[in-house]
Amino acid sequence: MRGPVSTQAVLFSLAFAVTIAAKDDPDYNPALNFRPDNVTLSNLYYWVGSYYNGTTDVELLPYAGLASTYRSLCPNLANTTITKQYETVLALTEPSTYNTGYDPVNAFLTLWPPGFNFSSLPYPTSSDETLELDSSLEFALFSSDPTYWVEGSVENNFNWTLNATQSPPYSLSSTLTEYDGQGGFSSNVTSCNGTDTVEWTFYPLPWNLNGTGYNLPDPVIDLEFDVKTANLSLEGYFIGYEVVKEGSKTGSSMVLAVGKLKLTFLGVLDAYHSDVLVNTTDTPTWLRTVGFQNNSLNVGYTSVASGSSVLGALAIGAWIFLMSAAFSFCA
Ligand SMILES: *[C@@H]1O[C@H](CO)[C@@H](O)[C@H](O)[C@H]1NC(C)=O
Ligand SMILES: *[C@@H]1O[C@H](CO)[C@@H](O)[C@H](O)[C@H]1NC(C)=O
Ligand SMILES: *[C@@H]1O[C@H](CO)[C@@H](O)[C@H](O)[C@H]1NC(C)=O
Ligand SMILES: *[C@@H]1O[C@H](CO)[C@@H](O)[C@H](O)[C@H]1NC(C)=O
Ligand SMILES: *[C@@H]1O[C@H](CO)[C@@H](O)[C@H](O)[C@H]1NC(C)=O
Ligand SMILES: *[C@@H]1O[C@H](CO)[C@@H](O)[C@H](O)[C@H]1NC(C)=O
Ligand SMILES: *[C@@H]1O[C@H](CO)[C@@H](O)[C@H](O)[C@H]1NC(C)=O
Ligand SMILES: *[C@@H]1O[C@H](CO)[C@@H](O)[C@H](O)[C@H]1NC(C)=O
Ligand SMILES: *[C@@H]1O[C@H](CO)[C@@H](O)[C@H](O)[C@H]1NC(C)=O
Ligand SMILES: *[C@@H]1O[C@H](CO)[C@@H](O)[C@H](O)[C@H]1NC(C)=O
Ligand SMILES: *[C@@H]1O[C@H](CO)[C@@H](O)[C@H](O)[C@H]1NC(C)=O
Ligand SMILES: *[C@@H]1O[C@H](CO)[C@@H](O)[C@H](O)[C@H]1NC(C)=O
Fold first, then answer.
1. Cβ–ligand 2 contact at 75 (below 6 Å)
2. How confident is the model over 75-90, as pLDDT tens digits?
3. What is the annotated signal peptide range for this record (predicted)?
């Protein structure tokens, strides 16, 4: 009797070990907001949360509003409208133990060129493969810097205010007093003092212009999201420079233009890359599903039926192997 019992024990531990080795992420830490790495994800989809796809429209109005006082700076740009459009992903992710300050969500708004191939983004295996360092990223707003491993604490670039609610939609806002995002909006438009077309780069304003004598208000960001859509806007002022190319070097002219800026993102939920946003809580909360086989809409999901039939085949194979081994041993 002893032989078959111990063979069965070996069989079960073997079948168990095979499943673990194939799928489990031994480094997964549920106390952090990093997803298990047993699903194929890039540096854009690294965190537990909701992801929204859409487009961002940027409208720049040189010398409009309070900036009209400065229209003598670059008269050629006055009364023009500059528009840009970007492919966009908005990541609204769960804050983690490394975040400091009040932070109902970590929001990462990333603006990419039209037609950008999101599959080309790498899984971050080294510090130079992070989202922030991707050369295709044209502009981004990070409520705190994207973090891929825990090294001390991560400060907020701006703090959200969450409007009181019992459930989604959530409505958040902030004023960007110390943060101007990453990157800028580039456009070929008329030069400051001539008739030629030159490249300009425009930046949201929040750096302190008091020293230069310009005094324009900080940008205000608004965000609303629920289980289906997310809308984000940034309204304020910009500062712009002509791009100067000398040989292979790119710099900025001293010439600057100022004006009103409006950025608008409308996005729809990317369920493939999203965990489940709970619809009954007064602050954003997620049930983790990506990597856990409990949401058929997710990346990496394989149906339970096919998963268990694979396991079943393995078990039967192992059983036959072990039983024949056991019988040949007895014989
Ligand atoms: C992926 O890893 C996590 C954490 O170890 C585990 O809970 C989950 O079951 C794994 N996913 C699959 C498909 O096995
Ligand atoms: C822009 O419009 C303002 C007000 O309408 C006008 O005074 C100004 O001359 C215009 N500037 C240019 C460069 O057209
Ligand atoms: C965000 O809030 C924290 C905690 O109140 C504060 O220390 C920090 O200065 C704030 N950050 C900004 C950018 O306002
Ligand atoms: C997108 O990038 C992936 C990974 O680099 C590549 O395999 C695929 O062919 C690209 N798709 C297009 C349409 O270029
Ligand atoms: C948030 O609450 C404030 C104050 O009650 C209100 O003025 C504002 O419209 C609300 N924002 C949104 C987007 O609902
Ligand atoms: C501006 O024009 C130059 C020369 O044609 C081009 O290389 C550059 O990509 C353009 N910039 C933008 C933002 O379209
Ligand atoms: C315009 O300004 C640039 C940079 O200040 C200068 O190099 C250029 O000669 C000026 N062009 C005209 C037409 O004044
Ligand atoms: C900028 O100047 C205005 C008015 O001169 C002043 O109220 C404000 O505090 C200054 N801001 C900073 C950041 O110094
Ligand atoms: C976002 O904007 C769209 C279009 O205006 C609207 O249908 C949707 O309800 C908005 N979403 C939220 C969460 O407010
Ligand atoms: C959102 O974009 C990602 C990246 O291109 C893509 O994999 C996903 O299928 C898209 N989802 C929706 C709902 O558009
Ligand atoms: C809330 O979520 C549950 C579970 O995902 C779903 O059954 C229910 O219909 C949702 N309710 C609303 C109002 O969206
Ligand atoms: C899916 O499984 C994970 C891990 O067991 C769990 O934390 C999560 O709440 C589950 N999600 C749902 C929607 O039940």
1. yes
2. 899 989 999 999 999 9
3. 1-21
Return all residues near 254 (Cβ < 8 A) that are at least 6 apart.
241
Q: Indicate the domain borders of the chain.
A: 4-40+290-330, 49-272
Q: What is the largest CA-CA distance in the chain?
A: 101
SS3 content of the chain, % helix, strand, coil (to 5): 20, 35, 45
Q: Point out the least confidently predicted range of 110-119, 227-236, 282-291, 315-324.
A: 315-324
From the CB of 274, is ligand 12 less than 6 Å away?
Answer: no
Q: What is the pTM of this model?
A: 0.85
Q: How is residue 40 written in tokens?
A: 């194929």
Query: Which is nearest to 86 in space by CA: 121, 116, 129, 106?
Result: 116
Q: Return the amino acid letter for 208.
A: N
Indicate whether residue 297 lines ligand 10 (CB < 6 A). no
Q: Is the dihedral of CA 97, 135, 243, 60 positive or negative?
A: negative
Spatial separation of the C-alpha atoms in residues 113 and 116, rounded to whole Å:
6
Cα 215 to Cα 291: distance, rounded to the nearest angstrom: 49
Query: Do 216 and 67 form a contact (C-beta atoms < 8 A)?
Result: yes
* Ligand 2 nearest-atom number relative to CA 79: 1
Contact between 136 and 119 (Cβ < 8 Å): no
